């Protein structure tokens, strides 16, 4: 990282680029041959019977915005899960990444082929990155082949980590643009901004954040190296590069501000706002994972890899790629950029060990943002791309440059390289075939007896259900609102309410992967949340206040071809004492007057929600006549608007048991009204005696400013790109004219 000289700008010829893209397309299709054989199928993992994050979350995340936009509505708020949560401002809603818009048109099943295309795109970026570092065409094909189907990336694709795969595709492109930035002394900064912006918009911020930190650290070291040389000319170049790097950062922020502002606003309300503890944020690799470098069979045999902590810890780059990368360490260090890449590889692998690594502990303590993420081993995406390019450098260093001028020896190099490419493709394809599978779209559970039950009883009442018996995708299709659901943003108010829901102080899984028994839940809190129905595994006895009203079996959520369909027994219980979703109540218990250190969730679980309301402060005079508990009428309920009518005899508060969020505003009889956080998680509006019409509306925080800045930023990028292409063509024409005249 202390190198002062970088490779000049290198671009492959048109023939080389066509050859590379075609070879990488064939390689990727070979690795995903099962999808090629059944192009209308969904790409899933062979483990867990085909269930993964794609089927559990991302199919509906890709499908929902298109439906809302087709209906002329902005996908701002999602009321179906977790008391409600924002769609815009949740990066994994995948709203602003252009390739995802194809799913709005073609259907979410197109996500499988988008995954394949992103693997190919990662390979093309790895090829260009290697070429920029001065590697020969045939050696650069090795980087492209490894980058297109890196085992770590394949493992996450099998796990259904759709946005991570999209981000992965932009990592080598960003490194390629960064090398060109260095080679031009900072003049070519625009490509870095665009690649970083697209990696952010792809939907998983963690890998983009790690990449930005890594590049910024590299840039800092390079600038310090130049400044310490003492040469005025070099210091002037360093100043220009520093200015260009700052411009790169500003431009990147401008390009993504439409997503960044709402995301930042939501993150401040989440459980990660103050950072995760080291025990959770630092759960990374262990010493036992080192054996996976040369033997991944235990990981594959485990299926879900429980022995090694899941696919997050897939410390495997392939045998041949690892050997070739070792050659870069042994014989390729004199090549421009090699030492820098080796150092970056060491940093990323060391970081992946999490709290077991001093490097991660320092970053967790001193670098803002590091503590907001879990699974530091996800940095292995970067490690995999670094190994791909280092493997190309190692192979290229084996062959003397003098051979390029001798046709016979050059052909030997090409044929041996082709043989090596086939070996690498076979190794990674063998790895892929152990992990990947496909299923027809009809293999997803649809129109189960549970779905039919709720379609016959449309209402605003909530349902307590786990993912196995009734998943989030089905709830969206049926218009059902689940208390639990798989959402990346866990808001602190929602988590605190779940804490009050568990009387023994144990934690409830917000995703619904593990559903507790009736006896482990606080009944009055379920009443307050408007949970009318509970779907429990068959055989669970009814508890006080619950009545069993239906039972039966449903097939498993996903069934792989040629495998028997598993059936799951269930019972549906109805809550006999559920509260309405909207009601007026007058008596208030102020949380601000509680004794010092009093735990608010413990206060909530000990109150009668029909008798009193928890508020930070009572807004009505103490001597005013208070309303008794009265049900309110929800006149209409959509994603971004709720209309409620109240009629009370005294002063009180309309409580709507949807999640409190600053993006919501309210009016009473068309006059603006304040929304207060009630019972920790819900919304309350002060209402006076009489009949009133209250309207809640959701507006994405910061979207207008973000949209304007991002629109102008992308317009500026397009104009600058056109101007740059025009200058390059003019320069080429002038050079050709000068050569012909000479």
List keywords for this structure.
single chain, 742 residues, alpha+beta, five-stranded mixed sheet, five-stranded antiparallel sheet
**Shape call:** globular
Number of strands: 21
Question: In DSSP terms, counting alpha (H) and pi (I) runs of 4 or more, how many helices?
Answer: 24
User: Strand sequence of the main sheet, in spatial order?
Assistant: 6-5-7-9-8
Based on CA atoms alone, the radius of gyration comes out at: 29 Å
**How much beta, percentage-wise?**
5-15%
Mean pLDDT: 88
Compute the separation of the termini in Å. Answer: 42 Å
Helix-residue proportion: 40-55%
Please outline the major beta sheet.
5 strands, mixed
Outline the low-pLDDT stretches. Answer: 303-308
Secondary-structure-derived class: alpha+beta
Put the structure in a nutshell.
This protein is 47% helix and 13% strand. Helix 20 links the parallel strand 5 (462-464) and strand 6 (481-482).
General description of the model:
The structure is a single chain. The protein has 742 residues and is of the alpha+beta class. The protein contains 24 helices and 21 strands. Strand 17 and strand 18 form a beta hairpin. Helix 5 crosses helix 17. The longest helix has 39 residues. 48% of the residues are buried.
């Amino acid at each position: 990282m202390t190198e002062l000289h970088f490779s000049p700008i290198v671009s492959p010829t048109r023939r080389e680029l066509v050859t590379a893209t075609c070879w990488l397309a064939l390689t990727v299709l070979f690795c995903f041959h099962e999808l090629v054989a059944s192009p209308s199928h969904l790409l899933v993992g062979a483990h867990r019977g085909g269930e993964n994050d794609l089927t559990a979350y991302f199919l509906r995340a890709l499908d929902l915005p298109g439906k809302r936009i087709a209906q002329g509505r902005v996908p701002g708020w999602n009321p179906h899960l977790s008391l409600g949560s924002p769609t815009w401002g949740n990066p994994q809603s995948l709203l602003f990444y252009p390739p995802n818009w194809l799913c709005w048109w073609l259907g979410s099943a197109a996500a499988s082929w988008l995954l394949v295309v992103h693997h190919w795109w990662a390979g093309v970026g790895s090829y260009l990155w290697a070429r920029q570092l001065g590697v020969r065409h045939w050696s650069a094909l090795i980087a492209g082949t490894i980058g297109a189907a890196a085992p770590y990336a394949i493992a996450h694709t099998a796990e259904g980590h759709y946005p991570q795969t999209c981000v992965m595709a932009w990592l080598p492109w960003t490194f390629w643009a960064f090398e060109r930035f260095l080679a031009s002394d900072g003049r070519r900064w625009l490509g870095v901004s665009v690649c970083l912006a697209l990696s952010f918009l792809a939907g998983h911020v963690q890998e983009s954040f790690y990449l930005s930190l890594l590049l910024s650290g590299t840039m800092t070291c390079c600038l310090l190296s130049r400044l310490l040389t003492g040469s005025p000319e070099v210091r002037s170049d360093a100043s220009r590069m520093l200015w260009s790097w700052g411009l790169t950062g500003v431009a990147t922020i401008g390009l993504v501000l439409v997503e960044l502002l709402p995301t930042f606003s939501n993150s401040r309300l989440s459980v990660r706002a103050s950072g995760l503890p080291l025990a959770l944020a630092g759960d990374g690799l262990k010493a036992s994972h080192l054996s996976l470098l040369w033997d991944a069979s235990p990981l594959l045999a485990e299926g879900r890899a429980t022995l090694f902590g899941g696919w997050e810890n897939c410390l495997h780059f392939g045998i041949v790629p690892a050997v070739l990368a070792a050659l870069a360490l042994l014989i390729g260090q004199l090549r421009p950029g090699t030492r820098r890449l080796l150092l970056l590889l060491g940093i990323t692998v060391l970081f992946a060990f999490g709290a077991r690594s001093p490097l991660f502990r320092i970053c967790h303590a001193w670098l803002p943002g590091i503590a907001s993420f879990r699974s530091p081993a996800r940095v292995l995406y970067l490690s995999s791309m670094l190994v791909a390019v280092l493997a190309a450098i190692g192979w290229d260093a084996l062959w003397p440059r003098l051979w390029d001028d001798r046709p016979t020896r050059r052909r030997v190099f090409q044929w041996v390289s082709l043989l090596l490419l086939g070996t690498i493709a076979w190794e990674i394809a063998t790895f892929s075939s152990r992990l990947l599978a496909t299923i027809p779209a009809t293999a997803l559970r649809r129109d189960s007896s549970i779905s039919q039950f709720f379609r016959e009883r449309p209402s605003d009442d909530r349902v307590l259900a786990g993912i196995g018996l009734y998943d989030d995708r089905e709830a969206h299709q049926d218009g059902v609102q689940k208390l639990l659901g798989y959402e990346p943003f866990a808001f602190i108010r929602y988590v605190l309410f779940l804490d009050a829901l568990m009387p023994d102080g144990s934690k409830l899984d917000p995703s619904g992967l593990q559903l507790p028994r009736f006896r482990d839940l606080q009944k009055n809190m379920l009443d307050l949340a408007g949970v009318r129905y509970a779907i429990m595994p068959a055989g669970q006895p009814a508890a006080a206040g619950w009545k069993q009203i239906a039972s039966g079996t449903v097939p498993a959520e996903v069934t792989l071809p040629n495998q028997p369909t598993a059936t799951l027994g269930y019972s549906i219980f109805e809550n006999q004492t559920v509260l309405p979703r909207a009601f007026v109540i007058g008596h208030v218990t102020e949380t601000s007057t509680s004794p010092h250190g009093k735990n608010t969730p413990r206060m909530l679980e000990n109150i009668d929600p029909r008798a009193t309301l928890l508020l930070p402060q009572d807004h009505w005079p103490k001597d005013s006549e208070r309303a008794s508990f009265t049900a309110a009428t929800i006149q209409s309920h959509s994603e971004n608007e709720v209309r409620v009518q109240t009629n009370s005899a005294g002063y009180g508060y309309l409580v709507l048991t949807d999640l409190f969020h600053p993006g919501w505003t309210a009016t009473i009889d068309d006059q603006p009204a304040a929304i207060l956080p009630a019972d920790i998680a819900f919304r309350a509006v002060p209402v006076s005696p009489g009949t009133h019409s209250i309207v809640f509306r959701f507006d994405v925080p910061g979207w207008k400013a973000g949209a304007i800045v991002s629109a102008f930023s992308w317009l500026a990028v397009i104009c600058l790109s056109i101007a740059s292409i025009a200058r390059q063509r003019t320069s080429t024409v002038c050079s050709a004219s000068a050569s012909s005249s000479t």
